[in-house]
Amino acid sequence: MPGLNLQELMSQAKQQYEVLQKKMQETVVEASAGGGTVTVKMDGRKQVLGIVIDPEAIKAGDIEMLQDLVMAAVNEAGRKVDESMQSSMGGMLGGLSGIL
């Protein structure tokens, strides 16, 4: 393959990896369940940054429902992170296509 510079390719891949790592740290998504009864904040590394539960949900005393809402909000936040990272990675990979 004429013009293929492996060292340059590796250098750009490393730069893209570093950009992605920074993006993962900076990305924060929020998702809720039960009409806002439970809200979860998560970063791009899928670390939960916070959970807010409406006090009325606790007063209701339905622990199983509350557990389901927490699980749904966490799962939705995870999906949002995946979507955000996929769109970010798509843009980065497009930049590498000029080398190949």
Account of the protein in words:
The chain has 100 residues and is of the alpha+beta class. The protein has a domain of 68 residues: Nucleoid-associated protein YbaB-like domain (Ybab, Chain: A). It has three helices and three strands. A three-stranded antiparallel sheet has the order 1-2-3. Strand 2 and strand 3 form a beta hairpin. Helix 1 packs antiparallel against helix 3. The protein is rod-shaped, with a radius of gyration of 20 Å.
Would you kindly provide a brief summary of this structure?
The protein has 100 residues and is of the alpha+beta class.
Record field, number of beta strands: 3
Strand order of the largest sheet: 1-2-3
Instruction: Assign the CATH class of the domain at 28-95.
Output: Alpha Beta
H and E order? HEEEHH
